[in-house]
């Protein structure tokens, strides 16, 4: 009986100790992935925040930005303790995009749209191999679009409209099989639109003219088709104007001829009257 009592006592103590250890582990803050910490810290340093929208982006939070699926950073979303999504849109941010952003290797969505960010897209972005959405639209970004973006094989969305990108659209981007939304309108791009971005799917182009307009040096299908339609309308307008002016000219000419004939006829009658009066009677 005493032996059974001692066994029960020891079992209870061990169970209590196990519960306390489990509770302590659950309460203990998890440390951030060192790559995520470097990513967030350097991104914050590269961005200017005149409106203080990122005031909670501090080193103490970078060391522990996530708790499971909960994020302690405004604009960030976590997934299993890793930075999964960054959405810092319309925050009046300036500065540049840090190449250390590539350290957020679990990042699947990056949205820095509608700010005043300048500089280039760092080629290191190629290391974001899980990236599905890239929206850098409505900023002051310049330089060439890095062909390394094609190494982000899961990209579904590339939105770069309303920036100052120059050079050609990389041919490699046409190889992104999952790409369903693409917009580089209103930049300073030039050269021919890559074939694989303008291929037809059935009777429709993969991306229509609205994805490419606003780039003076850019040409090729589907912009070429839009220009042809525009030229066709212009030709029709010119022909219409020509026909209209021709008909008007013809009417004016016809009226002038009629007036001239009437005037001539009247004059002849008057002359005949004068002659008949001057002729002697026989």
From TrEMBL:
Keywords: Cell membrane, Glycoprotein, Leucine-rich repeat, Membrane, Receptor, Repeat, Signal, Transmembrane, Transmembrane helix. It is a single-pass type I membrane protein. PROSITE patterns: LRR. PANTHER family: RECEPTOR-LIKE PROTEIN 14, RECEPTOR-LIKE PROTEIN 8-RELATED. It is found in: Cell membrane. Pfam families: LRR_1 (PF00560), LRR_8 (PF13855), LRRNT_2 (PF08263). One of its GO terms (cellular component) is plasma membrane. This is Leucine-rich repeat-containing N-terminal plant-type domain-containing protein. The chain crosses the membrane at residues 233-261. Residues 34-67 form the Leucine-rich repeat-containing N-terminal plant-type domain. InterPro entries: Leu-rich_rpt, LRR_dom_sf, LRR_N_plant-typ, RLP_Defense_Trigger. Residues 1-32 form the signal peptide. Belongs to the RLP family. It comes from Capsella rubella. The lineage of its organism: Eukaryota, Viridiplantae, Streptophyta, Embryophyta, Tracheophyta. The keyword Lipid metabolism does not apply.
């Amino acid at each position: 009986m005493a032996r059974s009592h001692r066994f029960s006592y020891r079992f209870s103590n061990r169970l209590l100790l196990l519960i306390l250890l489990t509770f302590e582990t659950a309460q203990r803050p998890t440390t951030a992935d060192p790559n995520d910490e470097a990513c967030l810290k350097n991104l914050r340093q590269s961005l200017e925040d005149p409106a203080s929208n990122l005031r909670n982006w501090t080193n103490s939070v970078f060391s522990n930005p996530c708790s499971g699926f909960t994020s302690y950073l405004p604009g960030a979303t976590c997934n299993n303790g890793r930075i999964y999504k960054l959405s810092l849109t319309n925050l009046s941010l300036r500065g540049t995009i840090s190449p250390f952003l590539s350290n957020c290797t679990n990042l699947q969505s990056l949205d820095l749209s509608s700010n005043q960010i300048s500089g280039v897209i760092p080629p290191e972005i190629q290391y974001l191999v899980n990236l599905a959405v890239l929206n850098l639209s409505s900023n002051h970004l310049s330089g060439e679009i890095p062909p390394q973006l094609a190494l982000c094989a899961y990209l579904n969305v590339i939105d770069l409209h309303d920036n100052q990108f120059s050079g050609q659209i990389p041919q490699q981007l046409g190889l992104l099989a999952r790409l369903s939304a693409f917009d580089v309108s209103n930049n300073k791009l030039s050269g021919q639109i890559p074939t694989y971005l303008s291929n037809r799917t059935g009777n429709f182009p993969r991306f229509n003219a609205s994805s490419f307009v606003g780039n003076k040096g850019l040409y090729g299908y589907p912009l070429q088709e839009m220009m042809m339609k525009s030229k066709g309308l212009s030709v029709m307008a010119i022909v219409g104007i020509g026909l209209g002016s021709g008909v008007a000219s013809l009417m004016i000419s016809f009226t002038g001829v009629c007036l001239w004939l009437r005037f001539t006829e009247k004059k002849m009658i008057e002359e005949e009257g004068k002659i008949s009066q001057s002729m002697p009677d026989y």
